[in-house]
Amino acid sequence: MRKKYWFYIDSYVHISIKKNAVLFYNPYTGKILEYNDEPGILGLVKTLRLPANLRVVPLWETELNNPVIREFVSNIKENFMGDLLDTGASHSKPVQLPPFPKVNKDVKYLKMDKNRSVGEDIMDYLTDLRIYVNDRCRHNCNICAGAYRQFPCCTSWRRGQRELVIDYLKILTEETRSAPYLDYHILGGSIFEYSMMEQAIEIIKDLSNRKIFYIHYLNVKPDKEQLKMLKEAEGELMMLINWPLDEVKLNLAFETVFTSGIESNMTFIIRNERDFAQADRIIDGYSLRTFEVKALYTGSNRAFFEENIYIGKDEIEEARPSLKDIYSRSFVNAFHFGKLTVLPNRAVYADVNAPYLGILGKDSIYEIMMKELSQGKSWRNIRRNVSPCKSCTYECLCPPISNYNTAIGRYDMCRIRKEKT
Ligand code: SF4
Ligand code: SF4
């Protein structure tokens, strides 16, 4: 008598099908299995995914005699993604419930749920407010025009000698103080050149949220008074370091920061392997424990990015995105989500590379966030909506679209596509 099995794929396994390509991903082990141009496997997986089948289908012994199907089933079993059950062992088909994600961060749900106060809930989403208080600085770094478009960094690029009028800082903090998960990032130019810095500190001091002040090492003055002021506001310091480096000034800045008692962190902005090696030497030399290294795309270091930033299958397996990451990547852009930037001219952005959303003092932060949630291009800029990622089985496994993609001008900063073609 022909033997029959139930073949099932576990509910935690992520399955993606694009044209003739099928991908399975086990979030617990990070393992990815891929099949291309295998009609037998494609047909079987499509049947498994039919809503009525709930990822369980009958498989006859004769089908398992097909070497392609046999090897496929064996790979699935070996990688803890599913199994075969003897149909004789149960009276009916086994049932499992594949997950159906509900997206809380969706304006549709916010509007539908009449019992929730949208105004209050929406503030839960605000996690980063980057406030550029001025654009004045006496230096002339080569990164000034580009870095702030890729990650939080000081800029005086526009050099409009503009300052955020203190009343607007007051409005901004009043409108956002109810946001429970919000960090305030205070940037310039040189924030010490902000003529209303003392009044700003009085306002910022009152906030119970985390406050991070960004200062380029060239703008750290040896007298410590300025750092003392930031410390009194219970702020932290993020010191920015880029190349070419003035080592004498950097050493002085380190000494000032370390002896001021302010909680500090460093961002090393590197362009190539040489900058990286020097950053590594400094990190070791000062035994730095809290630091970040950010690669800056300059327009002429594509090879460095291809080597170090572009992702491959191995990196994804190693990063092991969770099911939560995968669901989130199908609906929102975690790189941008919850972040707003205010420039000294009061223009508010979800992403400084996209058009501004509103004007501080004219449009409320609540209105600006609702606008971004309902029509915006940044918080919901996901791979599913852009080419070539939308045709790729990795669309929910790859990290969210970031400002590097904008700087380089392509979404597929990966080796995966190349490997496939
Ligand atoms: S210190 Fe910052 S703001 Fe000043 S020139 Fe350099 S990058 Fe621009
Ligand atoms: S970056 Fe885009 S094209 Fe490259 S693997 Fe990820 S989803 Fe696919």
Bound molecules: iron/sulfur cluster
Strand line-up in the sheet with most strands: 12-11-10-9-8-7-13-14-15
Cα(first) to Cα(last) distance is: 45 Å
Query: Structural class of the secondary structure composition?
Result: alpha/beta
Count the strands?
15
Could you characterize what this model shows?
This protein is of the alpha/beta class and 421 residues long. It has two domains: 4-89; 108-420, Aldolase class I (TIM Barrel), CATH 3.20.20.70. The chain has 16 helices and 15 strands. It has helices at 39-48, 61-64, 67-78, 107-112, 118-124, 166-176, 197-205, 225-232, 247-260, 273-285, 302-308, 313-319, 323-329, 365-375, 403-408, 416-420; strands at 4-9, 14-18, 21-25, 32-36, 56-60, 82-86, 128-132, 183-187, 210-216, 236-242, 264-270, 291-295, 339-342, 347-349, 358-359. A nine-stranded mixed sheet has the order 12-11-10-9-8-7-13-14-15, covered by helices on one side. It has a three-stranded antiparallel sheet with strand order 5-1-6. Helix 6 packs parallel to helix 7. The longest helix is centred in the middle third of the chain and has 14 residues, at 247-260. The protein is elongated. Mean pLDDT is 92; it is low at 112-119. Bound molecules: iron/sulfur cluster (2 copies). One iron/sulfur cluster is lined by residues 383, 388-389, 392, 394-395, 398, 411-412, 414, 416-417.
